[in-house]
Specification:
It contains seven helices and twelve strands. With 278 residues, the chain is an alpha+beta fold. The chain has a six-stranded mixed sheet. Strands 5-6-7-8-10-9 form a six-stranded mixed sheet. It binds one DNA strand of 15 nucleotides through loops.
Amino acid sequence: MNLPRQQPVPPPKSTHSPKINMPIIASFNVNSINARANIVKEYCQSQKPNILGLQELKCVNEQFPADLAGDLGYHATIHGQKSYNGVAILSQSPVNVIANQLPGDSDGEARFLWVEYNGVHIINIYAPNGNPKESEKFPKKMRFMENLTQLVRQKLLYLGQPLVIMGDYNIAPFDHDVYDTKALADDAIIDERARQYYFALTHLGLVDAFDIMNPNATDRYSYWDYMAGRFQKNQGVRIDHILVNGLMADRLVSCQIHKKPRIMERPSDHTPIAIEYK
DNA sequence: ATGGTGGAGGGTCCA
């Protein structure tokens, strides 16, 4: 049957629709919070995230920039460690801290922070990098991902509340998440065993916010190595992720990678990723 | 070309 094609009807133009401020949750591996305090400050002032998960603080709690959160009107929940790792959550109002260690983890590193904020469960992770693969670092990465998967399977699936697991996963899920699979052939971030843990999480019902909100996006990298002009050549990888459960997926409005902090002076090698939800 | 860069901390380790 040849039916006349219907003209698409444009949505009604509202010149004065009320601007609803939807909550924003963001994740940013800062590679030293003290080196990046100004960039974090600028990011909070321009994007106004309700929640900002930070990774790789590279300092103990006492060294976390004292005035940063207060000046911005944020609360800081900090789980620091000397020189390496370290995670924190900046929040516009206080959060309930549920755990600061991944159940089952015996490595004793500061890579995990679980809080509840306005009925949303938020887990901020800094997964081990895993390089070089023949060293003890790779099994450490596998243990971390195994413990995280077990936590989802045994506890988080039964929360009955919105859930966000965000941070530096140090896993590029798909070949199109890296600029060159050959150059990274031996890298733990594209190792199939590591990827299987990402897929395990998605098979358990978690949704990759960036992937679902930006199908076929070409601009998808969240990290560019400092070396060899990787950023200028846009030779990056997507290893920072925001995974959400179904209750949160229903509320997603956008997921964006914010590139500006990577362009500023003395940047981190990562840049933030953020979700907006209703 | 096993380099290149950047942070912590004051050796090298880590990414």
